């Protein structure tokens, strides 16, 4: 049989995640520091069931009916108000500009589908979310890294030069968006400072709204102690002018991932309408029941109570993993920073140690019984090759310590013997 | 602001459904025979909540965890076995070829995305599902109607001639798939006979597997008395050779639409892999909790008990609507057949009565307080213009009678006075 696939179809290949999952299935003895899942222990099964029972008591069967393509109005209102509070914004965030998606992933997909043809360009951070890079590859869109300072911030002077080069070469017409993970990023754990976000918006506004900003705030609520001290790009638009912004986040990563509900807010009405038209064709609306469960969880305070539990849990797990790694890896020449939120440690191995899927180091880690995400997957250009993403999302504290031991054992084999 | 949209983005416009919904919101006094929703009264809120409580008792929190991109293995197994039973098939239906989607809509979208570039062709029935036509327009794909016999079957001799013409003209290279709604179709209420399905497969197999069959079986389980007497195209492949088939259906239309879970089965492994890669980029898996609820509903028999309720309910509502219409419309020259399943009556108005959104008849119906779907939306070529889709899904029996009265009153104004 010889189906002739579309150009899009032809571009599809097994994803890096699928490859990781295949390894995980073949080797159930492995401890996974790879998956960016949340942990089963903290999933609020009893609490969510109580919400389901509450919905039944209220007796509104329409929660099991089809909903609107753009999402449940009550949930959109609650989330728009929540975003406005987080941004300490004076102006009202318009419910009309908000929408609900199948996880935040779909919002990003709709954004790229509506903006980019194959051959177009999206600028990304280095490192960036590797599933987003896969999506761009799948859609035939070129990802190019923005310049970065030695401290890991976006180098706005360098970005300005890059944009100028694009203008000179004509590539600027292919540049459709900048993708920025602005809070406790996957994988770096970093947040974008207010100054940096403002500077990027300031650069983009020179292009008359032709270049959009995709702000991915999936981990914004998963801070450990205090929220990161910067409002969203939406709140900065007043001073930064007319840049179309899509802000995307998820209601379920910081609650119950199995519900798969994302939330988006788009400042550009025509763009929003086009994304919603595509969503209408893809699924005609996210599962209405899940949205009702989440609206109820927000209204009753369950969502926030559970968030407090998660923040403390993830902070504890981050500390357990990092502490155990520090006892060995630092002396071996590895380095990383402890994040203030999120699910990831982003490690730099000593120069010369490569960590990719086909590397000796990766083989050694699998032999030692631990999985991680090779950092090169998180870079548009596939390098540097000596980075590692470790997630402390899935495993419990004692398993994390064991996984850290195994990781250190693997690292030990790649450490030059020191002669003292 | 002047975003430069992608070609896909530029093709998006307000959908016909959105237009219908806008009217519905502006005029809450209207009775809707338009929406293909199920009715709130029959939605199993208490029963589904019992499933949620059951899941809590079992205590497996992983139902709230991320699931696999291709879907929950247990649900896929249950549905593959169910499909095999429905097809009375001897050969085992492979779970590996099954997958779960966000409603059956997403399966169709993935199929078209992976097969068709803008400018390609998909053959459809006349009439066909109007949201599918919108999807094709959104993706830039040309829909062309297959020839139809006077009794409404696919005219396979005519189809053979059409395929021959495509071969002569070279258009055959753009023809990627045939879309067939084979059970109690939306909007015609018709089912495709075994002979007709076999004949279409027989024609397609001449093209060495280059033309796929998309079989949409969304309403298969919503028969009133007996299942339609034809197996799926999958079961017919043994005798009809190597045609790639995607069979799509929904678990939630015949149960609780607000859960939005579809099921697909694809006989072509490479095609399936490409669709799954795209799904991985769109959402990385349908909500896991919903899949657990549905697997539990299937296992406990709730799903089938509820189906029995729905079948009886929809049959009763079909009879109520059709009977009331028959008392007036037949004498006015309207015609239709009572379906054996599904949610729709498909009416033919007297010649010369146009029913489109901008027609005097449509205006008259809205004035009389009733909404319907203009039949021309359901035809790739936008005609005939004198058809009407009425859905008895949403309204209760007495409301249906009132809606029928209003519809008849509108029709009355477009009936030539007879001189006896």
TrEMBL record, chains A, B:
Q: Which organism is it from?
A: Pelagicoccus enzymogenes
In terms of superkingdom, the source organism counts as Bacteria
* PANTHER family for this protein: AMINOTRANSFERASE, KYNURENINE_ALPHA-AMINOADIPATE AMINOTRANSFERASE, MITOCHONDRIAL
SUPFAM superfamilies in alphabetical order: PLP-dependent transferases (SSF53383)
Tell me, what is one Gene Ontology molecular-function annotation carried by this entry?
pyridoxal phosphate binding
Q: GO:BP terms for this protein?
A: alpha-amino acid metabolic process
Which named protein is this? PLP-dependent aminotransferase family protein
Q: Domain Aminotransferase class I/classII large, which positions? A: 32-404
Q: Which cofactor does it need?
A: pyridoxal 5'-phosphate
Keyword set, alphabetical order: Aminotransferase, Pyridoxal phosphate, Transferase
């Amino acid at each position: 049989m010889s189906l002739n696939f579309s150009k899009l179809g032809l571009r599809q290949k097994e994803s890096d995640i699928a490859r990781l999952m295949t390894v995980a299935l073949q080797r159930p003895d492995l401890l996974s520091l790879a998956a960016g899942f949340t942990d089963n222990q903290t999933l609020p099964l009893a609490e969510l069931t109580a919400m389901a029972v509450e919905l039944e008591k209220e007796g509104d069967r329409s929660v099991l009916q089809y909903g609107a393509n753009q999402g449940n109005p009550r949930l959109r209102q609650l989330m728009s108000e929540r975003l406005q509070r987080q941004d300490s914004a004076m102006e009202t965030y318009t419910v009309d500009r908000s929408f609900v998606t199948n996880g935040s992933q779909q919002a990003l997909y709709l954004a790229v589908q509506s903006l980019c043809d194959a051959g177009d360009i999206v600028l990304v951070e280095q490192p960036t979310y590797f599933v987003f890079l896969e999506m761009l590859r799948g859609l035939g869109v070129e990802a190019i890294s923005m310049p970065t300072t030695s401290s890991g911030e976006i180098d706005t002077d360098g970005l300005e030069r890059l944009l100028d080069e694009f203008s000179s070469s004509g590539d600027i017409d292919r540049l459709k968006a900048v993708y920025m993970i602005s809070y406790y990023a996957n994988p770096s754990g970093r947040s974008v400072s207010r100054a940096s976000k403002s500077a990027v918006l300031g650069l983009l506004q020179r292009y008359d709204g032709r270049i959009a900003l995709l702000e991915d705030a999936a981990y914004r609520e998963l801070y450990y102690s205090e929220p990161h001290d910067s409002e969203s790009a939406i709140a900065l638009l007043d001073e930064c002018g007319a840049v179309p912004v899509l802000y995307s986040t998820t209601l379920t990563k910081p609650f119950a991932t199995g519900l798969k509900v994302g939330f988006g807010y788009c400042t550009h009405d025509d763009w929003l309408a086009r994304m919603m038209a595509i969503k209408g064709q893809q699924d005609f609306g996210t599962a209405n029941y899940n949205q009702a469960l989440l609206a109820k969880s927000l209204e009753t305070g369950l969502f926030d109570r559970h968030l407090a539990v998660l923040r403390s849990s993830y902070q504890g797990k981050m500390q357990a993993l990092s502490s155990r790694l520090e006892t060995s890896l630092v002396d071996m020449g590895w380095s990383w920073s402890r994040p203030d939120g999120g699910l990831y440690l982003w490690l730099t191995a000593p120069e010369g140690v490569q960590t990719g899927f086909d590397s000796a180091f990766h083989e050694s880690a699998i032999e030692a019984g631990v999985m991680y995400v090779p950092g090169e997957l998180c870079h548009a250009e596939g390098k540097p090759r000596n980075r590692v993403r470790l997630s402390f999302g899935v495993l419990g504290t004692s398993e994390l310590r064991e996984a850290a031991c195994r990781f250190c054992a693997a690292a030990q084999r790649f450490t030059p013997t020191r002669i003292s």
